[in-house]
Specification:
It is a single chain. The protein is of the alpha+beta class. It has one domain (2-163): Aminopeptidase, CATH 3.40.630.30. 27% of the residues lie in helices and 31% in strands. The protein is built from four helices and seven strands, in the order βααβββαβαββ. Strands 1-2-3-4-5-7-6 form a seven-stranded mixed β-sheet, with helices on both faces. A hairpin with a 6-residue loop joins strand 6 (145-149) and strand 7 (156-163). The protein is globular and about 45 Å long. The chain starts with a strand and ends with a strand. The structure holds coenzyme A (COA). Coenzyme A is lined by residues 21, 24, 90-92, 97-103, 121, 125-128, 130-131, 134.
């Protein structure tokens, strides 16, 4: 399992995977609607290649195969410090799920970028909620905070903790 920064040449790979991700999440976010071209689109993708130091795109591979991606950014919709690190999007392909890929990739992400981290997850996300709770509890050995914020159509669980980096 590897988590590697995505290069500009990898942008089309992320664009494709984001379609699968948004489709998955459209089950719990009805506001995610497919366009007339049959694509959901992801308007912020270009920023991940234009704002180094603020946006961080990663690809996850398992056994050499693409297995998912992570997008991280500075500044979180859930906090006021513009330097806070936020897991904007995180995805493991269905064929790789429940095999520990996400559990291995998340700490690699946090280790790469030391500082204050925020993870947001919809309370309706039945896989994401227990996943993040377990991953963050393991990573921080319990030294994290969690609270709920209003969201549409469901509230968010917001986790915050520090990464010492590696
Ligand atoms: C959430 C997600 C990233 C989990 O990735 P994964 O690689 O399948 O997770 P792991 O195999 O590392 O699971 C680690 C632990 O998380 C929990 N977990 C993961 N998926 C779960 C599920 N569907 N139901 C309940 N618990 C789950 C379990 O505790 C699991 O440990 P176990 O398998 O030993 O029981 C993946 O399901 C996904 O990409 N979902 C769609 C996108 C998404 O929701 N992203 C998060 C947005 S906030």
């Amino acid at each position: 399992m590897t988590l590697e920064p995505a290069a500009r040449a990898d942008e089309p790979i992320l664009r494709n995977l984001l379609e699968l991700y948004v489709h998955d999440l459209s089950e719990i976010f009805p506001q995610a609607r497919v366009g007339a071209d049959g694509r959901f689109g992801y308007e912020h993708l270009a920023r991940y290649f234009a704002e180094p130091g603020r946006r961080y795109p990663f690809l996850i591979r398992a056994g050499g195969e693409l297995a998912g991606f992570a997008l991280a950014m500075r500044g979180s919709p859930a906090t006021s410090d513009p330097e806070d690190l936020d897991v904007a999007e995180f995805f493991v392909l269905r064929g790789h799920r429940r095999a520990g890929v996400g559990r291995s990739a998340a700490p690699l992400l946090w280790d790469r970028l030391p500082g204050a981290w925020v993870v947001r997850c919809s309370l309706a996300n039945r896989a994401g909620l227990p996943f993040w709770e377990a991953a963050i509890r393991d990573y921080t050995k319990g030294a994290f905070e969690a609270g709920d914020l209003p969201g549409s159509p469901n509230p968010w669980r917001v986790f915050s903790f520090r990464s010492p980096g590696r």
